[in-house]
Amino acid sequence: MRQNGTATLRTWSIGGLLAIGMALGAQHVAAESHEEVVTAHGYSYFGNLDYPADYTHLDYVNPDAPKGGEIALGASGTFDSLNPYSRKGSSGALTSIQYDSLIEASVDAVGQYYGVVAHTLEYPESRDWVIFHMRPEATFWDGTPVTAEDVVYSHRLFVEQGLPSYAQAVGRMVTGAEALDEHTVKFTFDPALSKRSRIETVGNTPIFSKAWFEADESRRLDEPRLEVAVGSGPYKLDSYDINRRIVYKRRDDYWGKDVPFNKGRHNYDTIRIEYFSDQTASFEAFKSGEYTIRVESDPKLWASGYDFPKIQSGAIVKYELPDGSPPNPTGFVFNLAKPQFSDRRVREAISLAFNFEWTNESLLFGLYSPRASFVEGTPIEAKDVPTGAELEFFEALGDIVPPEVISDPVRMFHSSDGSRLSDRGNMRKASALLNDAGWTVGDDGIRRNDQGQPLEITMLYPTNIQDSVDAMHETYAQNLEQLGIMVNLEKVDPSQYTNRRRDRDYDMLYSTRYGSFLSTGGGLTQMYGSKEAEFSLFNPAGLASPLVDAILEASFTASSQEETDVALMALDRALRHEFFIVPTGYIADHWVAAYDMYEFPKALPPYDLGYLDLWWVNEDKAAALRASGALN
């Protein structure tokens, strides 16, 4: 199912930087290399920045949005840490909003970054280094200045103590980080590696206070803790109650409130997160007024649950708002390290047992759309067989490309008879595939291989999962058992689920961890690349494909947007060929229910709903809701 929110989007190129530099800002010649150097207020790999150097605010905000009021959100599950950057523990929600970065991505374009802590940056056409010039007025919430030393220290923390997939990739890419003076920091990159994702990766890293970490040697990035690292962001932790509540307060003294990128953003005085044991308790709490905005992902609730008195009175309003992001490739993920899934025919058979049409009509109220592509509905979605530039791209890769990738139409998800759970035709095909793969049915109805081992699948999911997804597991298991497959549905508490997911202690997992893409960059290797496949939290299948690796590498060296798009279309085709996810469909729009006290810009950005930092409170409406007793 779709995870609504900002998509992971990045873009980049090489040629024509003289003209780009003239358009973006002053240029000078680097004495040591004689390369043209671009100096600009933002960064895009291809040099296309929609906002000029003198922009006053982003187009998708209300720069005059009033400040004040509260947004309260619901969360299900538990938390035992306020450090979101560790593999250990369960981190509380929204902890990262307390930290600024040098640059930040806009959400109305792909791969465009603008200065926050940095006011300008400079880099040569080789992208072998970048220098960020920082705003001297930037301060942490303890009043100390944000310095280049803090930036360097934060970078090293992530490389030495960060998530392994990120740390290894960035550690290979960055060969040097140095403070040139108090407010100027330089990063140097390995020239032999891809130019993609260099500048935006180091520029978008959260900035911590070096002094805070060094004051106590027990403070580490890779350990869970309830003590919050000092940051410079717009919000600061106010209070927390383990497994019940987290409250953040907007900083009255936030140094960056008048930075053009921040105008019209961060409008709430308070952001509160209320925790509940499961989705049922969370929904009931919303109805009673314990929290104020709910982004709904359960079609059963959206279709039939929003008929209570506060909807009828208008105290709560429903919105269906357009979502311009490609849907996340959500579905049942195979753990490819498990031997029973090494044969593609077994994965094909297991997939054929999932009846999307029946599931959509019977469990999802017909509100979901089918998905086959990793970039569904976008211009880079692969179609039919490769032709033109895409065919030339595959041919240039040589023998690493399986012949069927070029000769056969791109994989489409099978269709099923929606009138019954078990589609007889698909089940016959699945049975034949399993027989061909050496898994035959015995007298006891269980499939075994020639060594007598049963075909067994453990599906892991948490107790706080939404009811419709719970039912999807149950009905999918019924069809798999009809095929003679032994299915263990393990429903565990959220904390145990988190630990087992991190350790890949499962055979199949309903996952939202993979991301769609509209451009290329290092983030794709953490999801789909081989180097980090064994341990990346963003690659739950453990996909390690030489074909995918070759396409990613080629995408990194593309010299134009057109070449990049061709490579990404080929990537979509290859990921579908590898077949490691059973797709479960997606929601085309954002479903939002909110107490009628919020307002938002008429033209929301395509890649973010923005309720957390673009919306604002109408205090008159909020007062009326409180006076009526609609809000607690």
Q: Could you please describe the fold and organization of this structure?
A:
The chain is of the alpha+beta class and 632 residues long. A six-stranded antiparallel sheet has the order 1-2-7-8-10-9. It has a five-stranded mixed sheet with strand order 20-19-21-16-22, with helices on both faces. Strands 4-13-12-11 form a four-stranded mixed sheet. β1 (27-29) and β2 (36-40) form a beta hairpin.
Query: Which radius of gyration do the C-alpha atoms yield?
Result: 25 Å
| Count of beta strands | 25
Question: Main sheet: which strands, in order across?
Answer: 1-2-7-8-10-9
Report the major sheet: 6 strands, antiparallel
Shape annotation: globular
Concise summary:
It is built from 19 helices and 25 strands. It has 632 residues and is an alpha+beta fold.
Notable features of this structure?
632 residues; 5-stranded mixed beta sheet
What's the helix and strand layout?
Blueprint: H1 17-24, E1 27-29, E2 36-40, E3 42-43, E4 70-76, E5 103-105, E6 113-115, E7 118-124, E8 129-134, H2 148-161, H3 164-173, E9 174-181, E10 184-189, H4 198-203, H5 210-214, E11 235-241, E12 245-250, E13 270-276, H6 279-288, E14 293-296, H7 299-304, H8 309-313, E15 316-322, E16 331-334, H9 344-352, H10 356-362, H11 388-397, H12 403-407, H13 424-436, E17 440-441, E18 447-448, E19 456-462, H14 467-482, E20 486-492, H15 494-503, E21 508-511, H16 522-528, H17 546-556, H18 561-578, E22 581-583, E23 589-595, E24 598-599, E25 616-617, H19 619-628
Parallel strand pairs: 4-13, 19-20, 19-21
Antiparallel strand pairs: 1-2, 2-7, 3-6, 5-6, 7-8, 8-10, 9-10, 11-12, 12-13, 14-23, 15-23, 16-21, 16-22, 17-18, 24-25
Helix pairs in contact: 2-3, 9-13, 11-18, 17-18
